[in-house]
Design goal:
The protein has 327 residues and is an alpha/beta fold. The chain has a single domain, classed as TIM Barrel (Alpha-Beta Barrel), CATH 3.20.20.100. It contains 13 helices and 12 strands. The strands form 3 sheets. An 8-stranded parallel beta barrel has the order 3-4-5-8-9-10-11-12, surrounded by 4 helices. A two-stranded antiparallel ribbon has the order 1-2. Strands 6-7 form a two-stranded antiparallel sheet. Strand 4, helix 3 and strand 5 form a beta-alpha-beta unit. Helix 5 crosses helix 6, helix 10 crosses helix 11 and helix 10 packs antiparallel against helix 13.
Length: 327
Protein backbone atom coordinates (compact mmCIF):
# COMPACT_ATOMS: atom_id res chain seq x y z
CA UNK A 1 0.00 0.00 0.00
CA UNK A 2 1.34 3.44 -0.90
CA UNK A 3 2.12 5.46 2.19
CA UNK A 4 0.45 8.64 0.91
CA UNK A 5 -2.78 9.45 -0.86
CA UNK A 6 -4.58 12.50 -2.15
CA UNK A 7 -7.73 14.25 -0.99
CA UNK A 8 -9.66 16.48 -3.37
CA UNK A 9 -9.12 20.09 -2.34
CA UNK A 10 -5.72 19.63 -0.70
CA UNK A 11 -2.50 20.47 -2.49
CA UNK A 12 -0.27 18.21 -0.39
CA UNK A 13 -0.10 14.45 0.05
CA UNK A 14 -1.74 12.88 3.09
CA UNK A 15 -0.25 9.93 4.95
CA UNK A 16 -2.43 6.82 4.81
CA UNK A 17 -1.86 6.38 8.54
CA UNK A 18 -3.16 9.39 10.44
CA UNK A 19 -2.14 10.13 14.02
CA UNK A 20 -5.26 10.19 16.18
CA UNK A 21 -4.91 12.89 18.83
CA UNK A 22 -7.72 11.68 21.11
CA UNK A 23 -5.19 10.18 23.52
CA UNK A 24 -5.30 10.82 27.25
CA UNK A 25 -2.28 13.12 27.70
CA UNK A 26 -3.26 15.29 24.75
CA UNK A 27 -6.87 15.42 25.90
CA UNK A 28 -5.51 16.74 29.21
CA UNK A 29 -3.45 19.38 27.42
CA UNK A 30 -0.12 17.66 28.06
CA UNK A 31 2.51 18.22 25.38
CA UNK A 32 3.74 15.04 23.71
CA UNK A 33 6.19 16.69 21.35
CA UNK A 34 8.65 13.79 21.15
CA UNK A 35 5.85 11.39 20.25
CA UNK A 36 4.59 13.70 17.52
CA UNK A 37 8.16 14.29 16.34
CA UNK A 38 8.60 10.55 15.90
CA UNK A 39 5.32 10.21 14.02
CA UNK A 40 6.39 12.93 11.58
CA UNK A 41 9.86 11.38 11.22
CA UNK A 42 8.18 8.11 10.25
CA UNK A 43 6.24 9.92 7.53
CA UNK A 44 2.92 10.41 9.31
CA UNK A 45 2.07 13.98 8.33
CA UNK A 46 -1.66 14.07 9.14
CA UNK A 47 -3.10 14.67 12.61
CA UNK A 48 -6.75 14.16 13.61
CA UNK A 49 -8.24 16.09 16.53
CA UNK A 50 -11.63 17.59 17.46
CA UNK A 51 -13.20 20.35 19.49
CA UNK A 52 -14.59 17.79 21.96
CA UNK A 53 -11.22 16.10 22.60
CA UNK A 54 -10.52 18.18 25.68
CA UNK A 55 -7.32 20.16 25.21
CA UNK A 56 -6.01 17.96 22.40
CA UNK A 57 -6.08 20.85 19.93
CA UNK A 58 -3.99 23.01 22.28
CA UNK A 59 -1.45 20.22 22.76
CA UNK A 60 -1.15 19.67 19.00
CA UNK A 61 -1.03 23.38 18.28
CA UNK A 62 1.76 23.92 20.79
CA UNK A 63 3.87 21.34 18.99
CA UNK A 64 3.18 22.87 15.57
CA UNK A 65 4.18 26.34 16.78
CA UNK A 66 7.26 25.08 18.65
CA UNK A 67 8.55 23.11 15.67
CA UNK A 68 7.49 25.62 13.01
CA UNK A 69 6.23 22.78 10.83
CA UNK A 70 2.82 24.06 9.73
CA UNK A 71 3.64 23.68 6.04
CA UNK A 72 4.67 20.03 6.58
CA UNK A 73 1.55 18.78 8.34
CA UNK A 74 -2.10 18.19 7.53
CA UNK A 75 -4.36 19.37 10.35
CA UNK A 76 -7.85 17.92 10.68
CA UNK A 77 -10.38 18.90 13.31
CA UNK A 78 -14.09 18.41 13.86
CA UNK A 79 -16.85 20.63 15.18
CA UNK A 80 -20.61 20.69 15.66
CA UNK A 81 -20.63 17.80 18.11
CA UNK A 82 -23.89 17.46 20.04
CA UNK A 83 -24.14 17.67 23.81
CA UNK A 84 -24.40 14.03 24.90
CA UNK A 85 -24.96 12.70 28.41
CA UNK A 86 -23.68 9.22 29.19
CA UNK A 87 -25.31 7.01 31.81
CA UNK A 88 -25.96 3.35 32.52
CA UNK A 89 -28.81 3.56 30.03
CA UNK A 90 -26.39 4.63 27.31
CA UNK A 91 -25.72 7.94 25.53
CA UNK A 92 -28.53 10.49 25.41
CA UNK A 93 -28.47 13.56 23.18
CA UNK A 94 -29.30 16.70 25.14
CA UNK A 95 -28.71 19.22 22.36
CA UNK A 96 -27.73 19.05 18.71
CA UNK A 97 -25.34 21.70 17.43
CA UNK A 98 -25.52 21.70 13.64
CA UNK A 99 -26.23 25.40 13.35
CA UNK A 100 -24.31 28.11 11.52
CA UNK A 101 -23.33 29.73 14.82
CA UNK A 102 -22.17 26.54 16.53
CA UNK A 103 -20.16 25.44 13.51
CA UNK A 104 -18.47 28.83 13.26
CA UNK A 105 -17.87 29.15 16.99
CA UNK A 106 -16.26 25.72 17.14
CA UNK A 107 -14.01 26.47 14.18
CA UNK A 108 -12.88 29.81 15.58
CA UNK A 109 -11.98 28.13 18.88
CA UNK A 110 -10.17 25.36 17.03
CA UNK A 111 -8.08 27.82 15.03
CA UNK A 112 -7.22 29.68 18.22
CA UNK A 113 -6.23 26.50 20.06
CA UNK A 114 -4.13 25.25 17.16
CA UNK A 115 -2.62 28.69 16.61
CA UNK A 116 -3.25 28.65 12.86
CA UNK A 117 -5.21 30.79 10.42
CA UNK A 118 -6.48 27.94 8.25
CA UNK A 119 -7.42 24.33 8.81
CA UNK A 120 -6.64 21.70 6.18
CA UNK A 121 -9.73 19.57 6.85
CA UNK A 122 -12.82 20.54 8.82
CA UNK A 123 -15.47 17.91 9.48
CA UNK A 124 -18.85 18.16 11.11
CA UNK A 125 -18.59 15.63 13.94
CA UNK A 126 -22.23 14.58 13.57
CA UNK A 127 -25.11 15.18 11.20
CA UNK A 128 -28.57 16.51 12.04
CA UNK A 129 -30.95 15.20 9.38
CA UNK A 130 -33.59 17.69 10.48
CA UNK A 131 -31.42 20.50 9.06
CA UNK A 132 -31.69 20.85 5.27
CA UNK A 133 -28.44 19.73 3.69
CA UNK A 134 -28.46 22.81 1.47
CA UNK A 135 -28.24 25.11 4.48
CA UNK A 136 -25.29 23.14 5.83
CA UNK A 137 -23.60 23.29 2.43
CA UNK A 138 -24.00 27.08 2.38
CA UNK A 139 -22.57 27.47 5.90
CA UNK A 140 -19.55 25.27 5.22
CA UNK A 141 -18.84 26.91 1.86
CA UNK A 142 -18.61 30.28 3.60
CA UNK A 143 -15.73 28.97 5.71
CA UNK A 144 -13.83 27.80 2.63
CA UNK A 145 -14.44 31.06 0.76
CA UNK A 146 -13.21 33.02 3.80
CA UNK A 147 -9.95 31.05 3.80
CA UNK A 148 -10.51 29.44 7.18
CA UNK A 149 -10.76 25.89 5.81
CA UNK A 150 -9.37 24.12 2.75
CA UNK A 151 -11.52 20.99 2.56
CA UNK A 152 -14.75 19.97 4.26
CA UNK A 153 -16.73 16.86 5.08
CA UNK A 154 -18.63 14.97 7.73
CA UNK A 155 -17.90 12.48 10.47
CA UNK A 156 -20.69 9.95 11.08
CA UNK A 157 -22.61 11.15 8.05
CA UNK A 158 -24.36 8.58 5.88
CA UNK A 159 -23.17 8.35 2.31
CA UNK A 160 -26.67 9.35 1.18
CA UNK A 161 -26.47 12.68 3.02
CA UNK A 162 -22.96 13.27 1.71
CA UNK A 163 -24.22 12.56 -1.81
CA UNK A 164 -27.03 15.08 -1.27
CA UNK A 165 -24.54 17.71 -0.07
CA UNK A 166 -22.35 17.11 -3.11
CA UNK A 167 -25.33 17.37 -5.48
CA UNK A 168 -26.49 20.62 -3.88
CA UNK A 169 -22.95 22.02 -3.97
CA UNK A 170 -22.58 21.17 -7.66
CA UNK A 171 -25.90 22.82 -8.49
CA UNK A 172 -25.10 26.02 -6.56
CA UNK A 173 -21.36 26.40 -7.23
CA UNK A 174 -20.41 25.59 -3.64
CA UNK A 175 -17.63 23.51 -2.10
CA UNK A 176 -18.50 19.81 -2.01
CA UNK A 177 -17.75 17.42 0.81
CA UNK A 178 -14.62 15.44 -0.12
CA UNK A 179 -13.95 13.73 3.24
CA UNK A 180 -15.98 11.31 5.33
CA UNK A 181 -15.05 9.84 8.70
CA UNK A 182 -17.11 6.77 9.64
CA UNK A 183 -16.24 3.77 11.77
CA UNK A 184 -14.53 1.06 9.74
CA UNK A 185 -12.74 -1.96 11.12
CA UNK A 186 -12.56 -5.73 10.81
CA UNK A 187 -14.93 -5.98 13.80
CA UNK A 188 -18.56 -5.14 13.15
CA UNK A 189 -20.03 -2.40 15.32
CA UNK A 190 -22.72 -3.79 17.61
CA UNK A 191 -24.20 -0.56 18.95
CA UNK A 192 -24.25 3.21 18.57
CA UNK A 193 -20.95 3.45 20.39
CA UNK A 194 -20.65 7.20 20.96
CA UNK A 195 -24.27 8.23 20.56
CA UNK A 196 -26.34 10.26 18.08
CA UNK A 197 -26.00 8.06 15.04
CA UNK A 198 -22.52 6.61 14.75
CA UNK A 199 -22.06 5.47 11.15
CA UNK A 200 -20.14 2.33 10.21
CA UNK A 201 -19.06 0.93 6.84
CA UNK A 202 -18.34 -2.60 8.11
CA UNK A 203 -20.56 -5.56 7.29
CA UNK A 204 -22.66 -6.86 4.41
CA UNK A 205 -25.42 -4.36 5.16
CA UNK A 206 -23.00 -1.61 4.13
CA UNK A 207 -21.95 -3.11 0.79
CA UNK A 208 -23.76 -0.34 -1.10
CA UNK A 209 -22.06 2.36 0.97
CA UNK A 210 -18.60 0.98 0.26
CA UNK A 211 -19.46 0.70 -3.44
CA UNK A 212 -20.47 4.37 -3.44
CA UNK A 213 -17.15 5.39 -1.90
CA UNK A 214 -15.23 3.36 -4.47
CA UNK A 215 -17.06 5.21 -7.23
CA UNK A 216 -16.97 8.78 -5.86
CA UNK A 217 -14.08 11.16 -5.04
CA UNK A 218 -14.72 11.22 -1.30
CA UNK A 219 -11.85 10.13 0.94
CA UNK A 220 -12.53 8.02 4.03
CA UNK A 221 -10.78 8.67 7.32
CA UNK A 222 -11.78 5.66 9.39
CA UNK A 223 -11.99 5.85 13.15
CA UNK A 224 -11.75 2.98 15.67
CA UNK A 225 -9.81 1.13 12.97
CA UNK A 226 -8.46 -1.25 15.63
CA UNK A 227 -11.87 -1.47 17.31
CA UNK A 228 -10.79 0.35 20.47
CA UNK A 229 -7.87 -2.02 20.95
CA UNK A 230 -9.88 -5.19 20.29
CA UNK A 231 -7.22 -6.19 17.74
CA UNK A 232 -4.39 -4.63 19.74
CA UNK A 233 -3.65 -7.57 22.07
CA UNK A 234 -5.88 -6.76 25.04
CA UNK A 235 -8.05 -9.80 24.22
CA UNK A 236 -7.59 -12.94 22.15
CA UNK A 237 -9.85 -14.97 19.93
CA UNK A 238 -10.46 -17.65 22.55
CA UNK A 239 -11.50 -15.14 25.22
CA UNK A 240 -15.18 -14.91 24.29
CA UNK A 241 -16.48 -16.46 27.52
CA UNK A 242 -14.44 -13.98 29.59
CA UNK A 243 -15.23 -10.95 27.45
CA UNK A 244 -17.11 -9.10 30.22
CA UNK A 245 -13.99 -9.09 32.39
CA UNK A 246 -11.61 -8.15 29.57
CA UNK A 247 -13.47 -5.46 27.62
CA UNK A 248 -14.34 -2.03 28.98
CA UNK A 249 -18.02 -0.98 29.23
CA UNK A 250 -17.81 0.90 25.93
CA UNK A 251 -16.11 -1.84 23.92
CA UNK A 252 -18.14 -4.77 25.26
CA UNK A 253 -21.45 -3.99 23.49
CA UNK A 254 -19.67 -2.41 20.55
CA UNK A 255 -17.26 -5.22 19.66
CA UNK A 256 -17.82 -8.14 22.04
CA UNK A 257 -19.94 -10.35 19.79
CA UNK A 258 -19.20 -14.01 19.16
CA UNK A 259 -18.68 -13.25 15.47
CA UNK A 260 -16.08 -10.57 16.22
CA UNK A 261 -14.16 -13.01 18.44
CA UNK A 262 -14.24 -15.50 15.56
CA UNK A 263 -12.79 -12.80 13.31
CA UNK A 264 -10.12 -12.12 15.91
CA UNK A 265 -9.20 -15.81 15.93
CA UNK A 266 -8.81 -15.83 12.17
CA UNK A 267 -6.79 -12.61 12.28
CA UNK A 268 -4.44 -14.11 14.86
CA UNK A 269 -3.98 -17.19 12.68
CA UNK A 270 -3.28 -15.26 9.47
CA UNK A 271 -1.01 -12.77 11.25
CA UNK A 272 1.12 -15.65 12.49
CA UNK A 273 1.39 -17.02 8.96
CA UNK A 274 2.41 -13.61 7.60
CA UNK A 275 4.84 -12.85 10.40
CA UNK A 276 3.09 -9.67 11.54
CA UNK A 277 1.05 -8.60 14.54
CA UNK A 278 -2.70 -9.00 14.72
CA UNK A 279 -3.05 -5.22 14.90
CA UNK A 280 -1.06 -4.77 11.70
CA UNK A 281 -3.20 -7.35 9.93
CA UNK A 282 -6.44 -5.72 11.10
CA UNK A 283 -5.23 -2.35 9.80
CA UNK A 284 -4.11 -3.91 6.51
CA UNK A 285 -7.64 -5.29 6.14
CA UNK A 286 -9.04 -1.74 6.23
CA UNK A 287 -7.07 -0.86 3.09
CA UNK A 288 -8.05 -3.96 1.12
CA UNK A 289 -11.47 -2.90 -0.23
CA UNK A 290 -10.37 -0.42 -2.87
CA UNK A 291 -11.63 2.76 -1.21
CA UNK A 292 -9.54 5.91 -0.90
CA UNK A 293 -9.03 5.21 2.80
CA UNK A 294 -6.88 6.76 5.49
CA UNK A 295 -6.86 5.14 8.94
CA UNK A 296 -6.75 7.22 12.12
CA UNK A 297 -5.02 5.50 15.03
CA UNK A 298 -3.55 7.04 18.15
CA UNK A 299 -1.16 5.75 20.78
CA UNK A 300 0.98 7.08 23.59
CA UNK A 301 3.74 4.58 22.73
CA UNK A 302 6.25 5.28 19.96
CA UNK A 303 6.71 1.57 19.25
CA UNK A 304 2.97 1.16 18.63
CA UNK A 305 2.97 4.12 16.23
CA UNK A 306 5.78 2.43 14.28
CA UNK A 307 3.96 -0.90 14.39
CA UNK A 308 0.75 0.60 13.01
CA UNK A 309 2.64 2.14 10.11
CA UNK A 310 4.00 -1.30 9.24
CA UNK A 311 0.48 -2.38 8.30
CA UNK A 312 0.95 -0.62 4.97
CA UNK A 313 3.63 -3.15 4.02
CA UNK A 314 1.46 -6.24 4.53
CA UNK A 315 -0.04 -7.68 1.33
CA UNK A 316 -3.59 -8.91 1.73
CA UNK A 317 -5.52 -10.52 -1.11
CA UNK A 318 -9.27 -10.16 -1.59
CA UNK A 319 -9.63 -13.84 -0.75
CA UNK A 320 -7.76 -13.38 2.52
CA UNK A 321 -9.77 -10.26 3.39
CA UNK A 322 -13.03 -12.12 2.73
CA UNK A 323 -11.88 -15.10 4.79
CA UNK A 324 -11.13 -12.86 7.76
CA UNK A 325 -14.77 -11.73 7.68
CA UNK A 326 -16.57 -14.93 6.82
CA UNK A 327 -14.23 -17.85 7.50
Amino acid sequence: MERYGTIVGLDKPVSRMIFGCAIKPMNQGVRVDKLLDRALELGINAFDTARVYGESEASLGGWVRERGNRDKVVLLSKGGHPVIEFSEKGPEVKKRRITRKDIRDDLETTLLKLGVDELDIYLLHRDDPSVPVGEIAEWMDELVKEGKVRTIGGSNWTYQRIAQQRAYAAAHNLTPFTVSSPHYSLAELGCDMYGDGCVTLTGEKNDEARKWYRENPVAIISYASLSNGFFGGKVHGNDYENRAQLLDPLSLPAFGSRENFARLQRAEQLAKEKGCTTAQLALAWCFADGMNLFAAAGSTHMERVEENLGALDIPLSKEEADWLCNG
